[in-house]
Amino acid sequence: MKVTLCQSCALGAGGFAATLDAALREAGVAATVATVDCLSGCTRPSALSFRAPGKTAYLFGTLTGADLPELVIFARAYAKSPDGGFADARVFGALRFKVMARIPA
What we know:
The protein is an alpha+beta fold and 105 residues long. It has helices at residues 10-13, 16-26, 68-80; strands at residues 2-6, 32-36, 48-51, 57-60, 99-103. The chain has one domain (2-103). A hairpin with a 5-residue loop joins strand 3 and strand 4. The longest helix is centred in the C-terminal third of the chain and has 13 residues, at 68-80. The model has no long low-confidence stretch (mean pLDDT 96).
């Protein structure tokens, strides 16, 4: 799985990618965490995406450092999902209100 964080936004500029990477490793989630200059989520800054080959991709926005625990929970569920789809949005926790896009594989 690849997790990408917008570096132009406050969260990305503040070094959250390293924090998220460490939290995912500690949780046993195999992921590559990277930053890009911009994810074009400017209306809902501090954007982050999850994607993996053959899976639905997700773009979240308006994230803060307080979302770290739910991002780890989501990453675990996403890693276990065969296609990135979820029958129940509760796996997203409060992140369900921060989903900007769900992009089919």
